[in-house]
Amino acid sequence: MKDLLTFYVQSLKTSIMSTFQYRTGQAFYILGMMAEPVIYLVVWSTIANAQGGSIAGYTAGGFAAYYIIWTLVRNINIVFTPYGWEWRIQRGELSGMLLRPLHPLHYDLSFFAGMKVVMITIWLPIAVLLTLVFHPTFNATPLSVIVFVFALVGAYLIRSMLLWLLGMITFWTTRVGAIYELYFAFELLLSGRLVPLALMPGWVQKIAAFLPFQWTFQYPIEALIGQLSPVQLFEGLGMQVLWIAGSFALLRLVWHFGVRHFSSVGN
Amino acid sequence: MFRIAWLFFRVGTLNELQYRVNFLVQLLKSLITLGTGIIGLEVVFSHTTTLAGWTRPDLLAVMGVYTLMGGLINISIQPNMTQLLEDVQQGTFDYVLTKPADAQLQVSVRKVQIWSVTDILLGLGVLVYAVTQLKEGPGLLQALMFVALLIMGGLMIYSFWLIMTTGAFWVVRMENILELFQGVYQAGRWPVAIYPNWLQVGLTFIVPVAFAVTVPAEDITGRLTGATLLETLAVTVLLLALSRWFWRFGLKRYSGASS
Amino acid sequence: MTDSSAYDITVGDLYKTYFVPEREAGLKSSLKSLVRRKTSAVHAVDAISFTIEPGEVVGFLGPNGAGKTTTLKILSGLLYPTSGVVSVLGHTPSRREKDFLRQITLIMGNRNQLQWDLPALDSFELNRAIYRIPQADYRRTRDEFIELLDLQGLIKKPVRNLSLGERMKVEIAGSLLHCPRVLFLDEPTIGLDVTMQRRIREFIAAYNKRYNATVLLTSHYMADVETLCKRVLVLHHGHLLFDGNLADLSDRFAAYKTINVTLEDASVDLAAYGAVIEHEGERSKLRVSKAEAPRITARLLSECSVIDLTIEDPPIEDVIERVFAQEQPVA
């Protein structure tokens, strides 16, 4: 265990140093990404104001808060893309990883975590700017802030593993574009990324409750902006733990069969 | 000049037609993007009946134009400009200069991503549907004006993108800035009227998204004013001239620098 | 029955078979293949058996597609054999046990394992963490390699700024930091200039001596094989054609010598002395059997007016080619 920790520390260091070299590109990417939430923010604030101040419990200020924290959570959600698996296999990178006495999941988890460190330093000033422009209203409590930090970690872990599962489909077929696009479309709609789920029709919310998406996106946001009661905060953490455990178990299973297939047919 | 453009188009298309699988994948992607867009619209309209004065069929029309314009961009503008950027960065731009045709023409028409025609078809479909839902359908004049405005919008986006890419002659790593544009273009899904004023200015003049998408939509939904029309015409001409001038300026510098 | 514990590597009756769809040209067969797919078996590795003792440096020779890389991948656990026994350091490679992986390394020429944007030293630290190398051991090994490979100026520069040869040096160093007992090297010197090739060869030899490591090496450069390997395994079309000393291979197979002779008189026909493979003016090349060579040389010297005469061993490449041409295992 101690050795694994040593690896994570070392890998984080490496990742931070490496990512730092590309900080300009990162900055532009993050800036470009702002368009999406700003658009949503504007649309919903307009509607909220027209409808007498608020819809489904969100005022214009509430929407502003939601979508500003959205930008942080969106960045935390960025993990190794399933499309990268084909690339990894073709370049022999996967073989290289298989030769080492460490599960490749640790490489991705640690490397992307390092990227987040650099990302947050870029994000902070942008978030401050957005706050000045859009006047969000926050109802955060110290408890909600602490839970938020844990929720971010949970979101990161869940999404890392879910996208790993998607990526592993590449072991069996490379015609994965359709599956991935469909997955991302569902995720967009059911995670709270397009709109807070409270604005979706009831039946959609019911479906979303059974899926992991909202725990990677909406839950952390709501935790911070103060929408949840302490009970709900801890329930949410519990759900995250459940999904982490579940996706991890599934991941190990699929990985086992995936590597077997990969090693049988040659690479 | 048009003959050359046509020849390039033919070769580019024939090239792409080899990859039939691309068509299905592209169709699926376009459908998914459109689908989520429409669902987004439906969610909005489950909470309100108008958005800054625009009704549901109005906004569907905007979405149709947005998708249509996106298709035009992806068929020609985006692949060509991306290739140009790559050429300048990799040093293969010289091959373009050695050919007898005008350099700007070449780099603007040589690549064709024909499968993005799915976006055009889907966009048209949504547009036609939206138009049938309008209280007052567009007349013939409006429809003709619409086509003209589309063309102008396309030319504006082309000029804008060309100006950005020409910047690569000085600032080699332009792709970051271009990525910014991709993000900002999304703002075009909604009529510019909903954005705060300062943002509107940015979207209209700094990045001509409003002109490309909102204005044709305004025409189709009967909102177009004469002033806007003249403005659009003026800005189109201005941008075309500016991009041409900047391009030639950049070329001179490039040819001068690499001797 | 071989006792695996005495050997570092044991391979028994190894097969790696791929099933390839078979289809003849023509419309009828295309239609037929839609209904019933005929596949034929291609043996990338065909009934290979050998054992390797600790500390041996063994060369794998063979043309492209002979099965060398496939065998190395099977031995390192990357590929599952179709059938047969494989045991490396007492482990079954395909189980990919952590203990096993910590004791081996597979180095492929032209593959980058180190972080591209960072100095090699940082990647070394990462490897230390991955392989759980104790600090003291790591420092000692690292400094040893820095000296042996002359890496001092290189390890602080980002890997992307290094030349191909320099990159290969740091890659090899990085791959050996955990002092593996078994090294699989697949074309380690490919694309490098002659000096660098020699450097790397020397390093491998030094490593082998110092740590008594077992080395399996494939290469297209005979110089690699001649310098490093006493023993070679020759593969062709998946078959093991020869397993033994390099010197024996030459003796067994290409038991001939080439005599280059320059005469005063260009018109003399040397066919009586041996097979004339070249004749240009005064110069001729004769091929004679090894046993006969001294006698024929003596005859030439006494019977003709010789200006110059040299005797050459057959080049290893020719020997190997003859083994391939044979295609039957040479016991």
Largest sheet of chain C: 6 strands, mixed
Order of helices and strands of chain B, N to C?
HHHHHHHHHHH
Order of helices and strands of chain C: EHEEHEHEHHHEHEHEEHEEEHEH
Poorly predicted regions of chain C: none
Strand count, sense and barrel status of the largest sheet of chain B are: none
Structure classification of chain C: alpha/beta
Termini separation of chain C (Å)? 18 Å
Kindly give the count of domains of chain B. Answer: 1
Helix content, binned percent of chain B: over 70%
Question: What's the CATH superfamily of the domain at 4-103 and 180-250 in chain C, by name?
Answer: P-loop containing nucleotide triphosphate hydrolases
Shape category of chain B:
globular
For the biggest β-sheet of chain C, the strand order reads 5-6-7-3-8-9
The counted number of beta strands of chain B is: 0
Q: Report strand % of chain B.
A: under 5%
Strand percent estimate of chain C: 25-35%
CATH topology of the domain at 4-103 and 180-250 in chain C: Rossmann fold
The total count of strands of chain C amounts to 13
Broad CATH class of the domain at 4-103 and 180-250 in chain C: Alpha Beta
Largest interface between protein chains, with number of residues from each side: A-B, 33 and 34 residues
What's this, in brief?
By secondary structure, chain A is mainly alpha-helical.
Describe the structure.
The complex is a heterotrimer of chains A (267), B (259) and C (331). Chain A is mostly helical and 267 residues long. Chain A has helices at residues 2-20, 23-33, 35-50, 60-76, 84-90, 93-98, 105-134, 142-168, 177-190, 202-209, 213-216, 218-225, 230-265; strands spanning 54-55, 58-59. Chain A has one domain (2-265). Chain A is built from 13 helices and two strands; from the N terminus they run αααββαααααααααα. Chain A is globular and about 65 Å long. Chain A starts with a helix and ends with a helix. Chain B has one domain. Chain B is 77% helix and 0% strand. The radius of gyration of chain B is 19 Å and the shape is globular. The mean pLDDT of chain B is 84. Among the domains of chain C are: 4-103 and 180-250, 3-Layer(aba) Sandwich (Rossmann fold); 255-313, Alpha-Beta Plaits (2-Layer Sandwich). Helices cover 35% and strands 29% of the residues of chain C. The chains are: A mainly alpha (267), B mainly alpha (259), C alpha/beta (331). Chains in contact: A-B, A-C. Chain A binds chain C through residues 3, 6-7, 9-11, 13-14, 17-18, 21, 92, 95-96, 98-102, 259-260, 263-264, 266-267, and chain C through 18, 70, 73, 76-80, 94, 96, 98-99, 101-102, 104-106, 108, 111, 113, 115, 117-118, 122-123, 125-126, 128-132.
